[in-house]
Structures are given as structure tokens and as C-alpha cells.
């Protein structure tokens, strides 16, 4: 039996060159992609960015799937600002999850977008790695929130493809609190959309809510002085929001 090193942390808060230390946004067309429900996404494309240098035997690859409302750009900001994963040792591929707005998504798809699952996200990532980038094995998968769910799904779907996973701010199965939180965001989005609010303003409000949940009262009070609050508030206007970086 294949054994994986799995670390789950609960926190509050087209071949291209693969040897660049850091890349801009890239996309790979993976063709017509079959979903597990039998439907297809036509001309599916997946976005990604790379950080670090690929070693000769390709044994230092770590993928970092995006969280809910996250992008490979946001992951890149996290990596470059905080050195969250050592780019001097590992080759990191930050992947825009299927449906995140950068990869094929309802917002950029010509026809009705089908219902997708976490397994579909992971399957597109495996196809990207194996067929387009020539990566046959991963040292690890790192992900937080919805990215952490993808990391767990990798362990279930492709245990022989990976050695380790780090999954943070995640539960292996949706709890009643998770469902309350997700439905709260959904109701806010639907209500404001009916009132004519634009998506950027809606995302700003939801990100402000996320900051309230992800940070304790003492953390915000101690790290954001009242006189600096206008600057802090302006961080939510950035895309992606800089408050989480």
C-alpha cells in the first residue's frame, strides 16, 4: 500500500520552459475535458505560474492549487512575500483551479457552464502536469481552504502520483459551519447581484467578511492602528486583495 505523508493544519486567518525562477501568467489548453458527471468542458484551459527552478530529475515539484476566490497571482504574492515555500529548493507550480475565473470558468465560457466537483479540478491539474508539462510525479501538494480540499482529493485520487500533502484551513468533509459560511457568501452574492452591484464590489464585501472570520479581534486591533485603518481598508480594493498577502 502506498503511504503518503499528510499534514492537515487548521489556521485562522503546450510545453513551456520550466526552469524560470518565476513566471508570469501562463495557460495550457488541455482540450475537451470530460467531467465525472459525464458532461464535457469544450476547449478547457488551465492557468498557472511557476516559482523556483526545476531540478534535473524533476523530483522537486510542488503544486499549489488556488483557494476559493484565489488565483495563481495571489499564491505568487504569498510565496514571494513570505517565502511560504522555499523556492531555492522546490519548483512550485501555482495552479488556477478550474472555475476560478482565470482557468475555464462560467465568466469566460461561451455556453452554460456545467456543474463541477473538486475531483474535476484535480483531474484537470493531473492532465496539465502529465500531458502538457511532462511532470509524472510530485514531491507534494500544498493548499489552503478550497485548495486544501484539492490537496486531500489528490491523496485520494492519485496516491501514487504524490509523496506528501500539506492541507491547511480545511476539513476533509463539509461541516455544518462550513455550509453556513458558504451559504452566507452565496446569499450575499445573489442578493447584491439582484440589486445591481458589480462583482468587484461584491467580492470586496465578501473579502471583508472573510477577514473578520480569519483574524481574531486582538490580531486586527494589535496589527492595524486606528489611524492606519483607511490604508488597511483600501487593501480590499486590490485584485487580488492585498490584506491576505
Architecture of the largest domain, CATH level 2? Answer: 3-Layer(aba) Sandwich
Q: In sequence order, what are the helices and strands, one letter per element?
A: EEEEHEHEHEHHHH
The structural domain count equals: 2
- Global geometry: globular
Q: Say what the CATH topology of the largest domain is.
A: Rossmann fold
Tell me the span between the first and last alpha carbons.
39 Å
The average pLDDT is: 89
Share of helical residues: 25-40%
**The CATH homologous superfamily of the largest domain:** Alpha/Beta hydrolase fold, catalytic domain
Low-confidence stretches: 11-20
Note the total helix count. 7
Strand order of the largest sheet: 1-7-6-4-5-3-2
**What amount of the residues lies in strands?**
15-25%
Give the C-level CATH assignment of the largest domain.
Answer: Alpha Beta
For the largest beta-sheet, the strand count, sense and barrel status come to: 7 strands, mixed
Radius of gyration: 18 Å
Number of strands: 7
In quaternary terms, these chains amount to single chain
In summary, what is this structure?
With 245 residues, this protein is an alpha/beta fold. The protein contains seven helices and seven strands.
Describe this structure in words.
By secondary structure, the protein is α/β, with parallel strands linked by helices. The protein has 2 domains: 164 residues, 3-Layer(aba) Sandwich (Rossmann fold), CATH 3.40.50.1820; 69 residues, no CATH class. A 7-stranded mixed sheet has the order 1-7-6-4-5-3-2, with helices on both faces.
